[in-house]
Amino acid sequence: MQKPYRLTRRQWLVSSLGLMATVLSSPLFAQTQIRRIAPQYIATLAPSGAKSGTGAETWGLWRVDPGPIGVWLRFYQLLQKAGNLAPAGWRFDINDWWLDENGLIMKAPEFPMPAGNYYVTNGEDHISLLTVKKPDANGEQAWSLSDEKTIGNVTHGPCRSARYTPEGDSATCSPANANRDAFPLKPGEIPPPVDGCNRKQYAVLIVFGLPIESA
Predict the structure, then answer these.
(1) Cα-trace Rg, the chain
(2) Cis peptide before 192 (omega within 30 of 0)
(3) 20 — alpha (psi -120 to 50), left (phi > 0) or beta?
(4) 3-state class of 9 per DSSP?
(5) What span, in angstroms and rounded, lies between the C-alpha atoms of 62 and 28?
(6) Residues 54-106: pLDDT tens digits?
(7) What is the pLDDT of residue 19?
(8) How many whole angstroms separate alpha carbon 97 and alpha carbon 52?
(9) Are 83 and 89 in contact (CB under 8 A)?
(10) CA-CA distance, 96 to 67, in Å (whole number)?
(11) DSSP state, 176?
């Protein structure tokens, strides 16, 4: 039943082998030491054309792919009956929940975004070193991308993530109100609005490696 989602991930993993071999052999990265990691995913709120900025404290990090451990919208009632505990062990929060492009309720990412350096890619033809600074005195986190890349360059288009929270004092913000017929989303489509909910759309960056610090 998860075929569309798994194909997306599998296609990226296969294509990334060629991409990374090409990129890492280029003069730009010839002297770069990268520790490859299992893919992680960053939920990003930033303008598509931005190369740097602030606001990374509003970003989140999925250390594990949230798709395969997600719960289909059609199984939401079962999730409720299970005390909002997903089969994979994560807990659903009715006041803060996430959907992906296939209609899967996802585990929320880790907030705030951990400071550090991350090699990110759109999974096709762009790669960059993302630097996320530690929070300043006001709690704001600055960020920047290397090599003149923009957020749009390193956004993985097939992955779309939306966060839903109650609108005002609404008690009707629920996955039960989501339009299941809207999924899977077509290319370019965004997750649909849900009655009683505020919706925030996040771009998704794939993290494939971390810099190896020189001694």
Answers:
(1) 18
(2) no
(3) alpha
(4) helix
(5) 28
(6) 999 999 999 999 999 999 999 999 999 999 999 999 999 999 999 999 999 99
(7) 54
(8) 28
(9) no
(10) 17
(11) G
